[in-house]
Amino acid sequence: MEYFLQNFINALQWGSFYALIALGYSMVYSILMLFNFAHGDIFMSGAYIGFCIASLFIFLFGGVGAPGWLVMILTIIVSMFLTSFIGVLIEKIGYRPLRNAPRASAAITGLMIGIILETSNIAIFGTKRIAFPPLVETVTYNIAGIFITNKKIIIVAISLFLMAGLHFFIEKTKWGMAMRAMSYDFFIVPLMGVSLNVIAPLTFAIGSALAAAAGILYGLAYPVLDPYMGILLGWKAFVAAILGGRGSILGAALAGFLLGFIEIFTAMIFPSTLRDLIAYSIILIILTIRPHGFFGKAHSSSLRL
Amino acid sequence: MQPRYFATFYLNYKNMKRIIGFKKILGFFSAMPALGWLFGFFSAVIIEYLIGNNIAWLLGLPKIPVLFGFLIMLKKPLLIPGALAYIIIVYLLPLTLTARFFSGKINKLAAKLYKLPPPVYTVFYLIFLYIIIDIWAGMSDYRIVTLKLTFIAIILTLSLNVINGYMGEFSCSHTGFMALGAYFASTVTLILFTNDKLFGEALLPSYLAPFLFPIALIIGGIAAALGSLLVAIPSFRTRGDYLAIISLAFMFIVKSLIENLEVLGGARGMGGQHPLANLPTVFIWTILSIWIINNFVTSIIGKATNAVRDNETAANAMTINTRRTKIVTFMFAAFWAGVAGGLFAHVLCYVNPGTFGIKKLAEIFTMVYFGGLNSIVGSIIGAVAFNLASEALRPLELFKWIIIPVIMILIMIYRPTGLVAFKEFDIKKILAPKGDK
Amino acid sequence: MKKLSLILTAIFFTLFALSSSGWCWGKKKIIKIGINAPITGDIPKVGENTKNTAKMWLEDIEKAGGIEIAGKKYPVELVIEDNEAQAESAVKVNTKMITEDEVITVIGPQSSKQAIPAGGVADSYATPMISPWSTNPDTTKDRPYVFRGCFLDPFQGPMLANFVKEEFGFTKAAVLYDVASDYPKGLAEYFKQAWEKNNGEGSVVSYESFTTKDADFSSQLTKIINSGAEVLFVPQYYNEVALIVKQARELGWKKPILGSDSWGSSETITLCGSDCYGAFFSTHYASAGAEGITKEFIDRYKKKYSYVPDDVCALTWDSLKLAQKAIEALVEFSGDIKKDRENVKKNLAEIANFEGVTGNMSFTPDGDPVKCAIIVKISDAGEFRFYKSVCP
Lengths: 305, 437, 392
Known about the structure:
The structure holds three protein chains of three kinds. Chain A has helices at residues 2-32, 39-61, 68-95, 103-125, 150-172, 174-184, 196-221, 229-244, 249-269, 275-289, and strands at 130-131, 140-143, 146-149, 224-225. Chain A is built from ten helices and four strands, in the order ααααβββαααβααα. In chain A, β2 and β3 form a beta hairpin. Chain A starts with a helix and ends in a 16-residue tail after the last helix. Chain C is α/β, with parallel strands linked by helices. Helix content of chain C is 46%, strand content 19%. Chain C has 13 helices and 17 strands. In chain C, a hairpin with a 5-residue loop joins β16 (373-378) and β17. In chain C, α3 packs parallel to α12, α6 crosses α7 and α9 (238-250) runs parallel beside α10. At the A-B interface, α4, α8 and α10 of A face α11, α16 and α18 of B.
């Protein structure tokens, strides 16, 4: 039981990264029907921006003795803000000119923008891997044989908070309503006075901001940043986003958690060498049984690439 | 591209032609048939073979510039004029002279050839082409390696184009198919011909290897085709985005499976293959793949894949068996990816599951979408251009990975379906004589 | 228009004349050495270290006026090419350097994934190649022209297993390694073999793995902690080491951790911090308290590039020095590249007791070095302290 609970908590942390990144994917995917293959690299850029901001804040406030959690919150907010500009820029350069093109072409542009982000990152920061500053002192609690660190609690709490915030934004605000409308039909909705040229950058901005938050939390939990860290995570979050189903943003978050749970628990139950094999077989089976993801609606003709 | 953009481009192009007088200079090229180009290159290659070294020496080049001077240009910019002069003297001059003075005669010859049955003259052209390639590549082993890998890239690009271009799915499993082919083909040749620590003594003498190599490749291809069923069967009920992640999951599964199979060497990879994939073998397989894939996409089932792409429901209503179409197309494309994988393994004489990862996938995507969807010529252009550019820009190290993506993005913005998309590939038209009215 | 083309033509011909003057001085005898490094791709840090080390070496040579062969000095040119950390690019690059640039010997590629196919190329063209970092036995096996600079897994794995047995007397061990990467995998296997030979079947109580680029090891570590192992063996690269060790500590692991030569980088401490203090690992040299040429090398490198060199740098340096020694031992530099390569290969195989930065070494007939390993303990100040030396 302890063993199970310990892994449950591990999976909660790991799943929240997938969920946060998948949310960003799903924003773009559900509303604009684009694969944003650059998303993993936006996540990476977010982590690096977070690193710069955090270092700056530590340098500024270090003498004053500001508490770590304050620096962390400030870092997250500022980096989310800055990274959202990267998202907007990518939308403007890479996706807007391709709005009438086949969706696969946009996916390729995304892939290429991702490579550019990685390369320019190496050009700026060098090939060295970077240690993310530990903003919060790690405290380990031992509750009945289960080890929980304060970082784990912070990470899960912040990601749940962000998810709830996004849900509120999408469901309750005017902008959110415009986005939902856009996801129904982006030919008719612009005629109703909602400009696609406003909604699309906004979607990218929010998605990138979430990726930046994920990047900083990732830096807290796994404090080694490297320029290629976004690739595999991005592709896996892509799996989660689509597993959640088109048109369902919270579905993506749930699928992200599910992916985390599948990975952790297959490693727990089976020999861990077989983890990828079994985890992805499960996903293959899920998709064979439920071909439109968990919450997606079946409208296959509009899913053409 | 939007029509108005296209119009401006076209007009500019026309203006340019008039201003610079391209028409006057290059007009006679348009009267040259395919045979003329071959003759032109043949003479260029013969010149290079005979006196290439002397010309290079005269121009102050250390050696003959192997890949049209691309390699030395970026490393030693001082040599650029020399390399350019070399290209002009050795390649452009013979071509121009052939076009200027022999067009008529060659056209007559081409017309004579054209009267023969198409298979006969096609084979003649291919043999001629191979002779040129062989002489050209024979001058440097670096050319041979680059050519072999380029040819393999052509097969890969074509086979992915069948799924992504002709059928309109977004399949991410191609490296998985390639890995299956590479591993199965290598296993066969290793069991049969190599004294190896994984499979023990060789069963057959190694002089038989070149003859049985095609069988090994076909086994690899069939293995990949069978593997593709795992992707093809879920594709009955879903498509587009969901199929993309099914195929992605398939790729991860194959990679993880190979890593766990200790029999195949696991992550350590499998080495010791005989270098069976020499230039003629790779060339023949490439031509075969172009021929068969072209036949496939122009056949009834090929047209059916197009129908499935454009509207699956309508296709179904028109009595197209969409399930059969999907299965056959997937298996067919996977077969060729497997063959390419097998060739790849025997060029490198080593395979490793890490080679068949996301990076390779991105590379194949780039080639397909650069060249053009739904087009055989496009795929060939995409593969050749990417491989050449990749070699040429290598000295730039990091900046290569900024330049290539930027080019790719520009292509996607101005020609969203690729350079030469939606073109039919008609060998008869290409080989037809020109100019005679 | 006409003026422009006139100017262009003029520029063209001037440049042409400049470059053509090449053949006046072009046919000088130059010793060319190829460096096949992963400058872009998955492991850019390795490529950068290789390049930096090679440049430092070249500086030395240039200061000395070239490599001296039979009393005459010849200039040296490095041909540095990028293999993108891909097997096919490594093959292309090796072919290019050997057939086009006519290098006398190739240094690199570093990781086995590229070194095995590239070694095949070098061997078929009878060109000596030294891979500084590749630990896979297949790299040099049955290839008389291919050498390597590092020791092999079959030596390092058992050595670590024996070290723990002698030093601590533990009987239960756990291993966590990357199943998709051949260096950790090979080492993990040999360690397991040796450990089970020492302590009986099933004494490796937990044998867990992950895949390259994973960042979360909590599930595997939970398993390891619950298995009751007394020591954890992590044969990983330093970026993964930092994550694994930190997470292990967070999950309550307080027992010793054991590493391999890939830990031997200053970045281990930068990334891992105090969590790694007290861990042991085997390596080629201990940077704290190094003596003689090793210290000299570390200091110079640090001064030039402002970071402490890691094992890649040290091994590349030794490989370059080995190549230099083999070239210097030539009876004459004939300019006939085939003959020279053959002789260099012969000299390389005959090198005995070469005094390198990573210890003294000689080559076995297979082209693998025989050299001692050092066990290092990470002190509480974060320094690599010499603990014990083990020789084969």
